[in-house]
Amino acid sequence: MEFELMASMMCANYGHLEQEVRDLEDGGIDSFHIDIMDGRFVANFAMSLNDMRYIAATTSKPLDVHLMIEHPNNRIGLFLRNLRPGDTVYIHPEAEYHPSTTLQAVIDAGMVPGIAINPGTSVETVMELLRIVKKVLVMSVNPGNAGQMFLPYVGKKITKLLAMKEDMGFELYWDGACSAEKILEYAPKGVKGFVLGTTLLFGKDRTYGETLQNIRELRF
């Protein structure tokens, strides 16, 4: 069974960031997930524009840029100018007055448009945007910090989105508290990719290559 694995780079060792990128790339990661946080939309400050720019210059793999910032349309050009066609940009609909305008800017720049849905955000409130985007990132934890516990009620939301994705034309991705058990359960149901952080990938006593190979060899 094929599914995508993305490395949550806010969990990487920033004392050796270039080596981290190289090791993940050599280990077979599919893309690099970049969490940009402004300390306002979420309570944490995380990665920056410069972090994103550095990683983009270090790898040929795609980037998945997750903008956890207020009013992304005000600064979207800064990010788009430093990305490559085919990279993904996710915004949170709650963070923007007119999210479709921001998504159109992503599309016009040749990037893949996406939205991230918080645990407390209902599918009904983003229904129209589902026809615009190509990717939907479902947060299984509240955004802002790594190492949180999975919120079980998110599972019903994923089930609802999976039933809609073919008609709407989007793919579904998982972000937060991603364990092997969750991949075993949701990859066969149609979740396309999984963001890997401290639960499964970073801070372990195995190489990234060994960990990623073990995930891809899970018995479904």
Our measurement of the CA-to-CA distance between the termini, rounded to an integer number of angstroms, reads: 8 Å
Shape: globular
% residues in beta strands: 15-25%
H and E order: EHEHEHEHEEHEHEH
What low-confidence regions span 5 or more consecutive residues with pLDDT below 50?
none
Fraction of residues in helices?
A: 25-40%
Biggest sheet strand line-up: 1-2-3-4-5-6-7-8
Largest β-sheet summary: 8 strands, parallel, barrel
Query: Tally of extended strands?
Result: 8
Q: Calculate the mean pLDDT score and round it.
A: 93
Give the number of helices: 7
Q: Structural class, from helix and strand content?
A: alpha/beta
- Backbone CA Rg: 16 Å
Brief rundown of the structure:
The chain is an alpha/beta fold and 220 residues long.
What features would you describe in this structure?
Helix content is 30%, strand content 19%. It has helices at 17-27, 49-58, 76-80, 99-108, 154-168, 180-186, 208-216, and strands at 4-8, 31-37, 63-68, 88-91, 112-117, 135-139, 171-175, 193-196. It has an eight-stranded parallel barrel with strand order 1-2-3-4-5-6-7-8, surrounded by four helices. α2 links the parallel β2 and β3 (63-68). α1 (17-27) runs parallel beside α7. The chain starts with a strand and ends with a helix. The model has no long low-confidence stretch (mean pLDDT 93).
